[in-house]
Amino acid sequence: MATLFALVATFLTSFLPILNKRILRHARPALVAWVINTVSLPILAVGTLLLTQCSLTAVSCTAQLPHVDTIFVVALLASVVLNWAATLLSTMALEKADASLVSPLLTFNPAFTLLFAWFSLGEIPGVRQTIGVVVVLFGAYLMEVEEARTGLLTPLAVLLHRPGALLAVGASALWGTTTVLEKLSIEHMTPPSGPIVALLGTLLMVLLLTPAAFRSSRQEGQRSQQGRWKGLDTHPRAVALAVLLAGIAPLFGFTAIALGLVGYVTTLFKLSSVLTIIWARVLLGEGQIRSRLLGASVMIIGGILVAA
User: Fold this and answer.
1) Range(s) of the domain holding residue 38
2) How buried is 221 (Cβ within 10 angstroms: 0-12 exposed, 13-18 middle, 19+ buried)?
3) Among 88, 244, 234, which Cα is nearest to 175's?
4) What is the pTM assigned to this prediction?
C-alpha cells in the first residue's frame, strides 16, 4: 500500500509546479505559498479526520487522541522550520526559472540527506551511495548538456547561472532532511499517524509564512486598493486546483511515509519531476525537454542508488 499511496502523491504533486508557475506570473511568491497552504488546511483537516476514523458528526471522536513525546515535538518543529524555508525558496525559484528546470533540481535531496548524515551523525556513505551522488550530479550536468560543445564544464556553469537554479538547489538541500524528521515524528506518536503530522506541520508552516505574505501584501496595497490579493484573481482556476492538490497530496504522501521505508518512498516521490517536465512542455510550452528529461531520469537513478 505504501507504493500505491506514494505514486498517487507523486502524480498529484507533479502538477503543482505548473500551477504555481502560472499563478506566479502575476502574484508574489510569499503570498502564493501562504494562500495555497492556508486554504488547503480545511481539505487536509477533513482528510485527516476521515483517515483517523473520526466521525464528523459525532460529539466525541471514537479514535483515541495520539500520545506524543519530546522527540516528536522537536522533530516536528525542526521539519516545519525547514519546510517553511524550502517552500519560500522553491516558490521564488519557480518565479524566476522554468518549472521543467526547477523540478528536477529539487530531486537533489537524497544526496544532501547522505551528506547531512555524514557530517552530523558520522554515517560514512558506502560505495553504492557515493556512486549515487555522482550519478545525481551527472544528471544535473545532462540538463544543460547541449552547452558542452563550448567546454566540458560549461553545462554546470550555465546551470548555476540560470535564474532560480541556486534557489532550487537550496530548497532541495533543506528538504533533504525534512522527510527523516517527519518519519521520526510519526514514529513517536501512539498510534502513529502520517496525516496528523501533515496537518500539524502545514498549520505551523502557515503561521511562519504569514508575516512575509502580509508584508508583501502591504507593499502591494500602497500601489493599489486591490493590492492585497493582486495577481491571485488572474488565475482563479489554477489557484483552486493548486489548493485542492496541496490539501489532498500530503494525505497520500505522509501515509506512504508512515507505512513504508523512507528511502524507498522518497525515491518514488522523485518521479514527479519527470512528469512535471512533460506537463511543462504540454501546458506551458517550455523548451529543452529532451535534455531535461534525460537529466531528471539520470538523477532519479542516482537517488535510487543513494536510498537503496
Assistant:
1) 2-57+64-307
2) middle
3) 88
4) 0.77
